[in-house]
Amino acid sequence: MSYDYLFKYIIIGDTGVGKSCLLLQFTDKRFQPVHDLTIGVEFGARMLTIDSRPIKLQIWDTAGQESFRSITRSYYRGAAGALLVYDITRRETFNHLASWLEDARQHANPNMTITLIGNKCDLSHRRAVSKEEGEQFAKENGLLFMEASAKTTKCGRGFHKDCCKDSSEHPRWCL
User: Fold this and answer.
1) Where are the transmembrane segments (predicted)?
2) What are the residues whose beta carbons fall under 8 Å from the beta carbon of 113, sequence distance 6 or more?
3) What percent of the chain is helix, strand and coil (3-state, nearest 5)?
4) Half-sphere exposure in the Cβ direction for 24 (13 Å, CA)
5) Which of 22, 23, 92, 156 counts the highest number of beta carbons within 10 A?
6) What is the per-residue pLDDT across 22-55, written as a single tens digit (0 to 9) for each?
7) CATH homologous superfamily of domain 5-162?
8) Residue 74 contacts residue 43 (beta carbons within 8 Å)
9) pLDDT for 61-77, tens place per residue?
């Protein structure tokens, strides 16, 4: 199938925050409760129609382990956006966001759109990071923000609906 635009997004964040589950929900509209750790990078794609234009969205799911950070860095090239994911039930994943953001800003296009995603909002009874803290971090760093659940898809509208690209090269696309 042909497309008018191709957008590459990279999913980054600590191991176990649900990056692979978000990818699977986006590409296959399903949730897999037990998922193997990502080794290096996994890839998924989906065709969307936005404003009557066919768009191909590629999502690159990166390994969150420190030992794979050097591999992950090479995938920033050519990315229109990054999805910076933390687990709302694990404070340490939120505490590591600054390091992930620094990597993204150092290795990616300076105009790349970055969306902060607080994942696992279906587990709000185990919340360790408030929504307000996520919103504040996003505001302080010029990021888009949303909370999501790869499991229920009921929090937010799904990252593909809210990750918008606004640049001089392309019109505004709400994915």
Assistant:
1) none
2) 80, 81, 82, 144, 163, 164, 165, 166
3) 30, 30, 40
4) 16
5) 22
6) 888 887 776 666 666 555 557 788 888 888 889 8
7) P-loop containing nucleotide triphosphate hydrolases (3.40.50.300)
8) no
9) 876 445 444 666 666 78
Please list, in sequence order, all residues whose beta carbon lies within 8 angstroms of the beta carbon of residue 68, skipping any fewer than 6 positions away: 39, 40, 62
List the chain domain ranges: 5-162
Give the integer Cα–Cα distance in Å for 131 and 44.
Answer: 28
Two tokens, residue 70: 């050097």
Distance between CA atoms of 130 and 21, rounded to whole angstroms? 22
Distance from C-alpha of 86 to C-alpha of 22, rounded to nearest angstrom = 12
Strands 41-50 and 53-62: antiparallel
Beta bridge partners of 173: 165
Identify which of 93-102, 107-116, 145-154 has the greatest average pLDDT: 93-102
State what percent of residues in the chain have pLDDT above 90: 33
Backbone angles phi, psi at 93, to 5 degrees: -70, -35
173 vs 164: CA distance, rounded Å: 5
Nearest-angstrom CA–CA distance, 93 and 95: 5
